[in-house]
Amino acid sequence: MNITAFKFTLSLFGLFFTFIPAFSAPGDLDTTFGGTGIRRVGLGSGTNSARSVARQPDGKIVAVGGASIGEYSQFAVVRYNTDGTLDPTFGTRGIVLTSVGSLTSGAQAVALQPDGKIVVAGYASNGISSSFALARYNPDGSLDTSFSDDGKLITPSLRAGDARVMDVALQPDGKIVAVGFATDFTGDGFAVARFNPDGAFDSGFGSGGVAVTFAGTNTNAKANAVAIQPDGKIIAAGESANHFAVVRYNPNGSLDTGFSGDGIVNTSVGSNSDRAYDVALQTDGKIVVAGTAVTFSPPTSFPSYFAVVRYNPDGELDSTFDGDGIVSHIAAGTTSGGHYSLAIQPDGKIVTAGSASYSATSGSVFAVVRYNPNGSLDSTFDGDGIALTPAGGSSSAAFAVALQPDGKIVAAGSNFAESPDAALVRYKTDGSLDEQFGTGGIVSTDSGDAQSAAHAVAIQPDGKIVAAGYNRTSFALARFNVDGTLDATFGTGGIVKTSNALGVNIIHAIALQPDGKIVVAGRSTQLTMYHGFAVARYNPNGSLDTSFDGDGIVITYVGMFESVAKAVAIQADGKIVVAGRDRLDFALIRYNSDGSFDTTFDGDGIVTTDMGNAGDTINDIALQPDGKIVAAGFMAEYDTNSRDSAVARYNPDGSLDTSFSGDGKVVTPIWTSGNDDANGVVIQPDGKIITAGQAFISNTGWVFGLVRYNSDGSLDNTFDSDGIVRTAFSSPHGAFARDVALQPDGKIVAAGNNNLYELADFALVRYNPNGSLDNTFGSFGKSVFNIVVEDNAH
């Protein structure tokens, strides 16, 4: 066999953890844990982006955007104190997440009412098409039920296809104006909707409260921003056929023919693709629009430029603004840039926020630009009128800007460490970073997560709970106190993250040593895409234990460089057994307590076992009191595209135990279809072995599948008469048992998930010792519950 071991350096990210609490009554959630029995914690790797920002009269800052939770996203609203800390009086520690619609939703814009209520607008998707979506929150972050009955509003389809809100504004009479786009088979159109304060469409506007306009063409016409004039006219700005597009509506939703003759102005700034992202009104009635302009540079370059256009009130270009009404440029030393938001200072200066890139491969940074009223760059702002700020991660961009009464500028957007976090930057009036805001002027907030999960959990003797998994590329652990709060004595605020900067690292299993040290096992994937067994050991305080192979980490390639560790156990002598697979077979490695290979285990510390003709995997292991090792998983047959539950038992020296089924191996079809797994294993005090997994049954789907073996490997016919128990749930996509545990009274608890279309619920089943369902638990032995976001801490 070919074995390679190496070490890697550390970087820190985060993850979500969701796990099963203890029960205070049969089948009920233990509400003494985290308040509800469920604790969900966002730690820093979610796909989060601030798309709009507003400043309250008291100086607090409200930023909105989207937060990914698993495969789906939600409205995210975050409120900060004036110093950049999260405001704990708003929602849950400053963060509110709202599912608007059945699947995916995202916030694009925010507006503040005079009474302190917050209007957020964006979109909601059902997986087929999207619609305008709005939500209104009370000042404390709760949904305002006086708005559309539950605080949330999804409009009927505006046209045949997608529709999304890109910006929102409030009229003095409390009506809400939302602009965006609506699509059908003919193309995209500007879409403007006006709602009464209670969320109903305003029938006095357009057609039933909606006006849709082809802004010069029926291709790519989208409104990205809105402004309301003092006379009640509505200005929408965006793009049409690769031009800046501005449309002005009368208060009743008709086009204002006093604006460029037909209510529509299209302006070419670059030569290829121009997009206006924001609009603002000057006190003299002039209209300022900011965005990006793209010009083709042969042979293949398409650089984008900061672009600002100013119009007179009649729609004509304002020639007092840089001579022709148009400003287009990039920052010195950069290759591209673009504006996404703008604001006008009381002195008439124009402030924009966006992004700039130094090269095609270097990523982007926050870009804040200030112009004089005549369109020239304001050299009193950061020396040249442009402030470029890396806001964290490999890339960052500002999508919104707001002005404080003291002249300070707040830009909001996202940074991209591994997946985006919301980011805010505050600047002084001279363009320097405001060191009194956040850390050196920068705040980063995670509101959700896209790729993270807990795969393993262990309970310490003192009752503290350690959960382990991944956050996208990193090993990640969190330790909780018995009440569900994060344990501040562990890592950083209860969290430890360990990453190999070259690849992906995932924890699949955890074990606790008697001395309090924590051992985790999983996989590390390098840029070559080869998988290796990855084992790390942490001290009780969460630091890596350098007595374990010198730096706390061992990575081992087994067999054909596609090995993954799925289980770990600590022997009484301190040796560590890790099990999983190489490319084709069961694979086990035993390490000495210092992280070296234990050569008394099959001569080199590594054992591989062929359970069938291909594709065998160990999912869990258990240690018998006599030192024997029981491994459970599956045996796959590539020629029949099927697999069966499989168990192997090894002697302490790594050889197969021939007293177990004659050759140390047992393969058990849980059902005749041949699609079975064993995901968990436990050994009873009498030596009997229980595995839990799933099986596929024709006309039923996936079911929990439990098997109990006698100590000699034969099926135990006192367990549901044939040694096999199959438990179905009433769900269209079936249920899967992921692990199994024994109670002191001999009852058996299997845990997993019950799949409902795209979503899944936690599922637990408790069995009597004979395999029958325990009807005193949950509903006839089963407990199914959905975990929602209870709280989210950064």
Write the layout of secondary structure elements.
Blueprint: E1 5-6, E2 48-55, E3 61-69, E4 72-80, E5 95-98, E6 104-112, E7 118-125, E8 130-137, E9 152-154, E10 163-170, E11 176-184, E12 187-195, E13 210-213, E14 222-228, E15 234-240, E16 243-249, E17 264-267, E18 273-281, E19 287-294, E20 304-311, E21 326-329, E22 336-344, E23 350-357, E24 364-371, E25 386-389, E26 396-403, E27 409-416, E28 420-427, E29 442-445, E30 453-459, E31 465-470, E32 474-480, E33 495-499, E34 504-512, E35 518-525, E36 531-538, E37 553-556, E38 564-570, E39 576-581, E40 586-591, E41 606-609, E42 614-623, E43 629-637, E44 642-650, E45 665-668, E46 676-683, E47 689-697, E48 701-709, E49 724-727, E50 735-742, E51 748-756, E52 759-767, E53 782-785
Give structural attributes.
elongated, 4-stranded antiparallel sheet, disordered N terminus, mainly beta, 794 residues, 47% strand, 5-stranded antiparallel sheet
| Biggest sheet overview | 5 strands, antiparallel
Number of alpha- plus pi-helical segments: 0
| Broad structural category | mainly beta
Span from first to last CA? 44 Å
Which stretches are poorly predicted, pLDDT < 50 over at least 5 residues? Answer: 1-24, 38-47, 447-452, 787-794
Estimated share of beta-strand residues: over 45%
Shape: elongated
Helix content: under 10%
Query: Spatial order of the strands in the main sheet?
Result: 1-37-36-35-34
